[in-house]
């Protein structure tokens, strides 16, 4: 089943992408949730026209995303967590904590756009990927330190 995504869907695609999914996933999840529309001839034409008209706006959005990535640069952030004697974290380090650390540095990033490359389990250095735009992804280093 071919559908046109109306919004970004993690591990599937980005807004206005035409993707092939299993029919059950499309009928039972994507279409009822309003995340996609059927990719018939008419809808494809409408989306193509909308994409063509929004091309210059998309360039500006990509430029803004690149500016955020440049502002973050190679900075490393410290995330405080309760740590046991062996160095293991009590609880979890979440993307919300990393988003707040970025916000403290003057960069506002939605926590849903952040994903850990490796889930932090103990004190130490880790990396996370920030998906700022479908063509702009930025790696961020952060240190989990004892509180």
From TrEMBL:
The Ribosomal protein L9 domain, residue ranges: 1-46
Pfam family, one: Ribosomal_L9_N
Keywords attached to this entry: Ribonucleoprotein, Ribosomal protein, RNA-binding, rRNA-binding
Function: Binds to the 23S rRNA.
Family affiliation: Belongs to the bacterial ribosomal protein bL9 family.
Listed NCBIfam families: L9 (TIGR00158)
Name of this chain's protein: Large ribosomal subunit protein bL9
Lineage per the UniProt record: Bacteria, Pseudomonadati, Bacteroidota, Cytophagia, Cytophagales
């Amino acid at each position: 089943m071919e559908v046109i995504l109306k919004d970004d869907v993690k591990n599937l695609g980005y807004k206005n992408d035409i993707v092939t999914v299993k029919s059950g996933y499309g009928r039972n999840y994507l279409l009822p949730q309003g995340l996609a529309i059927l990719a018939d001839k008419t809808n494809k034409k409408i989306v193509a026209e909308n994409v063509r008209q929004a091309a210059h706006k998309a360039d500006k959005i990509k430029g803004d995303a690149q500016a955020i990535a440049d502002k973050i640069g190679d900075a490393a952030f410290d995330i405080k967590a309760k740590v046991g004697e062996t160095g293991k974290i009590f609880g979890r380090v979440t993307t919300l904590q990393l988003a707040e650390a970025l916000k403290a540095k003057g960069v506002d990033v939605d926590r849903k756009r952040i994903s850990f490359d490796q889930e932090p389990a103990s004190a130490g250095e880790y990396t996370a990927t920030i998906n700022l735009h479908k063509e702009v992804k930025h790696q961020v280093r952060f240190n989990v330190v004892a509180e």
